[in-house]
C-alpha cells in the first residue's frame, strides 16, 4: 500500500527514471517528501523551472531516454511552458509532472492555480489530469509510452495535491504493458511504397539524401550511413539532423537551408530525386515552397503522416519508423540487379565538387582573418580541434548557433544539441547540464552568446551544487548578433534594441562569484592556448568570454522567398 | 469544399477541448460541431463540418487522428451519407401571416411545437440546406429566434464507424 506521492516516485523508478529535473513548491510537497524518502530517483534542483525542462530535454537528446521534470502548480507550471514548447517543436520525448491545487479547489482561482492542462494543450503530445491516486501507475506508464513512441513529444501529468496525500494509501502495481485502442503509432512502412522508392532512388541521375532529426531520434544513423556509402550518393543534414551522417564524411555536403552550405542548397535545387528521411520540410529549409527543387521527385519517410505533404508534396510517401524503413530499403537495394547509373553519378559528383571548390565553407575559409578581431567561426574551428571533434556541444540561439552548426563537424549523432524549431534563447546552459548529468565524464561545451546566456545564467549555481563541469564558450559580440545581422541587411543598419550600451556584466567576475573559472580572450594569438587551458580544467566549470567581431554575418544566407539555390554568400557576393 | 467529419472520441475529460483547440491552433475553421455519448459509454461521437480544399482536409484528418483521444474518424462526404440537422425557430404569426407560416411549415414537413397568440415555435429537421431554405421562405422579417443543433451524419448502407 502506497500513498499517491510514493506511488508516483515508485512508478518513475519502475519506469527506469534515473533523474528528475525540478523545483519544489506547495502543491508538489507531498511528492518531494516521497523523493526524500528514497534514493533511486535522483533529483536535480535547478534555479528556474525553464531550466528543468531544457535540462531534461537535452538529457533525452543525448541519451535517447525520456527526460523527466517535476514542478509545482501555478508559476512553477507556467515557467516550464517555454521548455515544453521547445521539446514539442523538436519532437523530444519528455514527461512533465506538475503539482496542482487540491481537487476541490480547482476552478476557484485558488492560490497558485493555473489550468496547466489547458495552457500546455497546444504544445504537448498528450496530457493527463490525475483524478484518483489509484490511476497513477497506469497514467505514468502511458505517459512514458506516448512520449517515447511514434513521433516523440512532451506529455504533461497534472497532479492535484490531495491525490498525493500521505494520509491515504492504495495497492500499487506497475503495469507491464500499455494498450491503448486509440494510439497505435506506425512502425513498418508500406512495402509497396518502399519498393517504389528504391526504384526511383536507383534510377536517379542527380540524387540527394536530405536527412533530419528523425534519423537521430530514431537511432538510424548507422543505417543512413550504410545507405549513403552503398549508393555513394551525396547527403545533407538539417540543423536537427547534424551528426546523423559523419560531418567529416566525404559524401557530406554540410547543412542545408537558410544558413546551409552553397553546395548542399545548390545540389538540392538541381537534384532529380530527393530522399527525405526523418525531416519535415521546414520553412528554414525549403525557402519558397513554390520554387523548391523544381525537377525533383520526392520520397519522404516520416513516422508522422501529418508531416508528409504538409508543405512540399511527396511523390512517394512512406509512413514508418526510419530504422525499419531504411533497413528494408537497404536489403532491397542489395538484392536488386539494378545499380545506380555510374556515369551519371560521376558527372553529378564532379559538378558537386566544383560547387564545393567555388563557394564551399570546408574547402577554404570564407571569413576574413586579416583584421585584428577574432572571428566567431575560427573560435568554433578551434573548439573542434581542441576537443578533437568529440565533445557534446549544446548551443543557444543566434549567430553563434549557426557558426557552431557550420564549423563543428559532428561525426556522431546526439552530439549536437540545440533548439531548432522554437529557437529558444536560454536553452544552452541548462541543456549542457542535462547532458553532463547523463555523462559525468564527457566533455560538454555550451556555445552561447552574451545575449542568450543571460536568459538562464542563474544555472551557474546549479552547476556548482551538482559538480557539473560544463564549458561555456561565449562568443561575445556585444550584440544580439542575429537580430543585428537582419537589421544590417533589411533595415539599413538601424539597430533597434539589439545593442546593450555598455551594460554587459563582467562575465569573469560573475563566473567567479558562483565559484567557477572565468577566462577572457581578446586576441587571436591566445585563443587556442586559452581554449586548451579551459578544457584541461576537467572538473571545473569554465566560462570563456571570447570577444569576437561584432560586424560578422552568418553566410551563406538564402534570399527570402526565392529558391534553395538563391543565396547571399558574403557582404559582397550573391548567387 | 464543405466536409462532414465524424469522429469516435474517448469519452474522457479534456478530449473535446483538444479537438476544438486543434482547429483554432492550426487556423482551420469549424462551421458546426455536435457531440454526445454513444451506446458505448466510453465513447463520444463528434460530428463537425468544415470547409477547405483537399490538402487542408487531409491535414485536418491527419491531425485529428494524431490526437490520442481520437479512436477513429471518417469523412462522411467521401461516400454517400445521410445528414441531418434540427432547428427550433420562433416566428411572428399573427393575422394573415398565421396561415401563411403554417402552410410553409407543412411544405417543409416541420412541426409547430408551441403557440402563443402572436408566435409559433417550429421544429424542423433535415439537411442544412433544407433548413436554410425554410429560413428564406419564412423571411427575415418574421424570424424572432433561431436555434440549430449543427449537423450530424451517418454513412448509407453497410458502412459503419465503430470500434
Ligand atoms: C536561428 C535559426 C536558424 C535556422 N536555420 C536553419 C537552417 O539553415 N537549416 C536547417 O535545416 N534548419 C534551420 N533551423 C532549424 C529549423 O527551424 C528546424 O528546426 C529544422 O529545419 C527542422 O529539422 P528537421 O526537418 O530535421 O525536423 P525535426 O524537427 O527534427 O523533425 C523530425 C521529423 O522526423 C520525424 N521523425 C521523428 N522520429 C522518427 C522516426 N523514428 N522515424 C521516422 N520519422 C521520425 C518527425 O515526425 C518529424 O517530421 C534554424 C533554426 C534557428 C533557430
Ligand atoms: C527567448 C527568445 N527571445 C528572442 C529571440 C529572438 N532572437 C533570435 S537570435 C537573437 C539574438 C541572440 O543574441 P546572442 O545570444 O548574443 O547571440 P548572437 O546572435 O549575438 O551570436 C534574438 C534576440 C529568441 N530566439 N528567443
Ligand atoms: Mg551576441
Please render the helix and strand layout as text.
The complex is a heterodimer of chains A (575) and B (163).
Chain A: E1 2-3, H1 4-14, E2 19-22, H2 29-36, E3 42-45, H3 49-63, E4 67-71, H4 75-89, E5 94-100, H5 116-120, E6 126-129, H6 136-148, E7 154-160, E8 169-170, H7 191-202, E9 207-211, H8 213-217, H9 221-231, E10 235-237, E11 252-255, H10 262-270, E12 273-277, H11 283-286, E13 297-302, E14 316-319, H12 322-335, H13 342-359, H14 376-386, E15 392-395, H15 399-407, E16 416-417, H16 428-438, E17 444-449, H17 460-466, E18 471-476, H18 481-490, H19 507-513, E19 517-521, H20 524-536, E20 542-547, E21 557-558, E22 567-568
Parallel strand pairs in A: 2-3, 2-4, 4-5, 5-7, 6-7, 9-10, 9-12, 10-11, 12-13, 13-14, 15-16, 15-17, 17-18, 18-20, 19-20
Antiparallel strand pairs in A: 1-8, 21-22
Chain B: E1 2-10, H1 15-25, E2 32-37, E3 43-51, H2 54-66, E4 70-75, E5 81-92, H3 96-107, E6 111-115, E7 119-126, H4 128-138, E8 143-148, E9 152-155
Antiparallel strand pairs in B: 1-3, 1-4, 2-3, 5-7, 5-8, 5-9, 6-7
The complex binds flavin-adenine dinucleotide (FAD), thiamine diphosphate (TPP) and magnesium ion.
The site of magnesium ion (MG) has 8 residues of chain A, from loops.
CATH-assigned homologous superfamily of the largest domain in chain A: Thiamin diphosphate (ThDP)-binding fold, Pyr/PP domains
Task: Report strand order across the widest sheet of chain A.
Answer: 3-2-4-5-7-6
What is the CATH superfamily label of the largest domain in chain B?
ACT domain
The quaternary structure here is heterodimer
State the helix count of chain A: 20
CATH class of the largest domain in chain B: Alpha Beta
Helical region count of chain B? 4
For the biggest sheet of chain A, the summary is: 6 strands, parallel
Helix content of chain A: 25-40%
Straight-line N-to-C gap of chain B: 28 Å
Amino acid at each position: 500500500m502506497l500513498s499517491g506521492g510514493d506511488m508516483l516516485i515508485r512508478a518513475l523508478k519502475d519506469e527506469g527514471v534515473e533523474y528528475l529535473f525540478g523545483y519544489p513548491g506547495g502543491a508538489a510537497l507531498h511528492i518531494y517528501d516521497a523523493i526524500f524518502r528514497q534514493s533511486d530517483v535522483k533529483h536535480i534542483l535547478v534555479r528556474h523551472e525553464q531550466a528543468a525542462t531544457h535540462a531534461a530535454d537535452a538529457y533525452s537528446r543525448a541519451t535517447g531516454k525520456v527526460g523527466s521534470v517535476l514542478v509545482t502548480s501555478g508559476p512553477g507550471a507556467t515557467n516550464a511552458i517555454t521548455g515544453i514548447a521547445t521539446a514539442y517543436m523538436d519532437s523530444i520525448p519528455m514527461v512533465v509532472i506538475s503539482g496542482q491545487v487540491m481537487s476541490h479547489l480547482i476552478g476557484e482561482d485558488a492560490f497558485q492555480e493555473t489550468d496547466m492542462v489547458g495552457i500546455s494543450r497546444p504544445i504537448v503530445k498528450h496530457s493527463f489530469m490525475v483524478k484518483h491516486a489509484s490511476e497513477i501507475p497506469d497514467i505514468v506508464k502511458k505517459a512514458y509510452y506516448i512520449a517515447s513512441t511514434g513521433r516523440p513529444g512532451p506529455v504533461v501529468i497534472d497532479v492535484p495535491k490531495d491525490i498525493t496525500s500521505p494520509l491515504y494509501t492504495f495497492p500499487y502495481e506497475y503495469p507491464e504493458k500499455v494498450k491503448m485502442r486509440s494510439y497505435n503509432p506506425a512502425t513498418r512502412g508500406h512495402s509497396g511504397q518502399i519498393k517504389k522508392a528504391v526504384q526511383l532512388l536507383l534510377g536517379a541521375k542527380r540524387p540527394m539524401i536530405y536527412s533530419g532529426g528523425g534519423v537521430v531520434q530514431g537511432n538510424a544513423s548507422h543505417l543512413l550511413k550504410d545507405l549513403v556509402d552503398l549508393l555513394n550518393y551525396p547527403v545533407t543534414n538539417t540543423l536537427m539532423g547534424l551528426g546523423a551522417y559523419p560531418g567529416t564524411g566525404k559524401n557530406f555536403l554540410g547543412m542545408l537551408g537558410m544558413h546551409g552550405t552553397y553546395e548542399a542548397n545548390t545540389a538540392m535545387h538541381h537534384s532529380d530525386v530527393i530522399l527525405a528521411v526523418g525531416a519535415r520540410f521546414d520553412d528554414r529549409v525549403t525557402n519558397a515552397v513554390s520554387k523548391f527543387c523544381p525537377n525533383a521527385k520526392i520520397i519522404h519517410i516520416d513516422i508522422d503522416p501529418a508531416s508528409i505533404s504538409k508543405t512540399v508534396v511527396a511523390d512517394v510517401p512512406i509512413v514508418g519508423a526510419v530504422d525499419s524503413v531504411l533497413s528494408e530499403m537497404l536489403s532491397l537495394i542489395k538484392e536488386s540487379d539494378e545499380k545506380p547509373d555510374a556515369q551519371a553519378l560521376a558527372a553529378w559528383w564532379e559538378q558537386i565538387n566544383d560547387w564545393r571548390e567555388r563557394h564551399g565553407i570546408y574547402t577554404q575559409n570564407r571569413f576574413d582573418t586579416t583584421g585584428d578581431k577574432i572571428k566567431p567561426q575560427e573560435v568554433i574551428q578551434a573548439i573542434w580541434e581542441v576537443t578533437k571533434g568529440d565533445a557534446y556541444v549544446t548551443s543557444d540561439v543566434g549567430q553563434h548557433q549557426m557558426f557552431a552548426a557550420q564549423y563543428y563537424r559532428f561525426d556522431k549523432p546526439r552530439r549536437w544539441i540545440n533548439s531548432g524549431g522554437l529557437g529558444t534563447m536560454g536553452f544552452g546552459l541548462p541543456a549542457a547540464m542535462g547532458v553532463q548529468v547523463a555523462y559525468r565524464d564527457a566533455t560538454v561545451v555550451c556555445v552561447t552568446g552574451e545575449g542568450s546566456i543571460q536568459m538562464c545564467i542563474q544555472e551557474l549555481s546549479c552547476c556548482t551544487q551538482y559538480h557539473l563541469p560544463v564549458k561555456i564558450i561565449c562568443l561575445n559580440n556585444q550584440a544580439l548578433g542575429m537580430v543585428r545581422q537582419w537589421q544590417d541587411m533589411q533595415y539599413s543598419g538601424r539597430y533597434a534594441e539589439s545593442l546593450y550600451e555598455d551594460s554587459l556584466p563582467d562575465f569573469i567576475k560573475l563566473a567567479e562569484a558562483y565559484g567557477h573559472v572565468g577566462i577572457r580572450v581578446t586576441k587571436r594569438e591566445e585563443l587556442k592556448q586559452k581554449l586548451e587551458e579551459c578544457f584541461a580544467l576537467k572538473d571545473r566549470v569554465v566560462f570563456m568570454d571570447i570577444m569576437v567581431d561584432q560586424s560578422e554575418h552568418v553566410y551563406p544566407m538564402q534570399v527570402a522567398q526565392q529558391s534553395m539555390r538563391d543565396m547571399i554568400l558574403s557582404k559582397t557576393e550573391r548567387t | 469544399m464543405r466536409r462532414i467529419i465524424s469522429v469516435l472520441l474517448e469519452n474522457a475529460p479534456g478530449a473535446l477541448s483538444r479537438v476544438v483547440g486543434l482547429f483554432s491552433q492550426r487556423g482551420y475553421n469549424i462551421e458546426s460541431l455536435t457531440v454526445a455519448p454513444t451506446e458505448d459509454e466510453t465513447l463520444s461521437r463528434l460530428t463537425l463540418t468544415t470547409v477547405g480544399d483537399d490538402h487542408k482536409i487531409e491535414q485536418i484528418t491527419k491531425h485529428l487522428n494524431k490526437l490520442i483521444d481520437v479512436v477513429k474518424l471518417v469523412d462522411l462526404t467521401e461516400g454517400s451519407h445521410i445528414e441531418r440537422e434540427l432547428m427550433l425557430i420562433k416566428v411572428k404569426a399573427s393575422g394573415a401571416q398565421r396561415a401563411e407560416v403554417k402552410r410553409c411549415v407543412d411544405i417543409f414537413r416541420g412541426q409547430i411545437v408551441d403557440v402563443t397568440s402572436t408566435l409559433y415555435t417550429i421544429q424542423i429537421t433535415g439537411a442544412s440546406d433544407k433548413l436554410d431554405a425554410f429560413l428564406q421562405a419564412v423571411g427575415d422579417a418574421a424570424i424572432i429566434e433561431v436555434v440549430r443543433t449543427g449537423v450530424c451524419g451517418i454513412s448509407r448502407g453497410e458502412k459503419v464507424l465503430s470500434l
